[in-house]
Amino acid sequence: MSAALLSFSAVALAQVARPEPAAVPKRTHEWWRDRPIGGQPYRTDAKKLPLISVKGNRFVDPDGKAVLFRGLAISDPDKLEMQGHWNKDHFVKVKEMGTTLLRIPVHPVAWRERTPAEYVKLLDQAVGWATDLDMHIIIDWHSIGNLTTGVFQDPMYDTTKEETFAFWRAMSRRYNGHNTVAFFELFNEPAAFGRVNWEAWKQIVEDEIAIIRANNQQAIPLVAGFDWAYDLTPLRLNPIAAEGIGYTTHPYSNKRPQPWEPKWEEDFGFAASKYPIIATEFGGFAMPPAPGATPPTAAAPTGAGGRGGANAAAYGPAIIKYLESKGISWTVWCFDPEWGPTLISNWEYKLNSSGEFAKAAMHGELK
Question: Which of 128, 183, 241, 272 has the highest Cβ tally under 10 A?
């Protein structure tokens, strides 16, 4: 066969074997138009409540008057919505407790599964209802674990530094300039799963604060210490390098044996002379016995994590008296019949003994 014929045959074969070009898939997602979650600030009644700021070791109102907050935590909005209890009536019940500061825990798993765009819709509703009812808000990134090692207590708390930073970028943009959203609790409870040190945690926190301040100069970042957000002793030598922030403590009764007060002073109370503090989580109370009655001996409800402890009747008055003597604001856990220490016994909103005590404390009715 001639070379010319071979060449012609090869070309013909190549033309026959050449596949048709694949059809270009139809795409509708114009990714170049995407904007960050929280990019449009929520402005409804943004200035109805007074602006809260930091002055020295106190939170203050626009007139410079010190504000001591009393409040509670609800359960995760995603849980409440899934169980049919996410509505303004729930917030009305919260307000009836005497709440001036409402803590809203956002679990990383709920943030991801609902999707950030849909979760923000729940938070917008919460801000609107709280504004109507004259309650300021803490938005709490509710994780328990170690952001350095990436080890967390349970799957619901699993997160990353990147996701945590993205969450605060979204929150700071969304609620920029809204007086109701007074506080951002940066991380619920740092816990030493693996190696951890204050300097590494301090760097993470300062990065979070920088992200928030780039988008929102108004909301007050709240920083937790170690030992499940109980221990603030590192502040003695190495406080967070940022102005206008506060710190948190979770002084559950089981953290230290009685007498509690000397240890509270040593572990976190000392810091209240220099920095504003909120005890953002504690609970497991009982109403003190009536004069002449026999004190109860049963242990406090423990709930998740075994929190509570013995001698609930003594613990409640002791911790409230101590916190308020130091000018430390507080929010108790939890306005849900399933997440303990609970304040309500059922979804008819029947208060248990811990809830009755918390309500009396919020209304300033303790003797």
Answer: 183
In a domain, 353, yes or no: yes
Which pLDDT band holds residue 297 (cuts at 50, 70, 90)? very low
Residue 59 lies inside a defined structural domain of this protein: yes
Q: How many structural domains are present in the chain?
A: 1
Instruction: Write the pLDDT tens digit of every residue in 207-260.
Output: 999 999 999 999 999 999 999 999 999 999 999 999 999 999 999 999 999 999
Residue 237 structural domain: 53-362
- pLDDT interval class at 330 (50, 70, 90): very high
Distance CA 99, CA 186 (A): 22
Beta strands (DSSP E) in the chain are 53-55, 58-60, 70-73, 101-106, 136-141, 144-146, 151-152, 181-185, 189-190, 220-224, 246-249, 277-279, 329-332
Distance CA(239)–CA(285), nearest Å, equals: 32
Q: Is residue 26, in this structure, part of any structural domain at all? A: no
Q: How far apart are CA 349 and CA 331, in angstroms?
A: 18
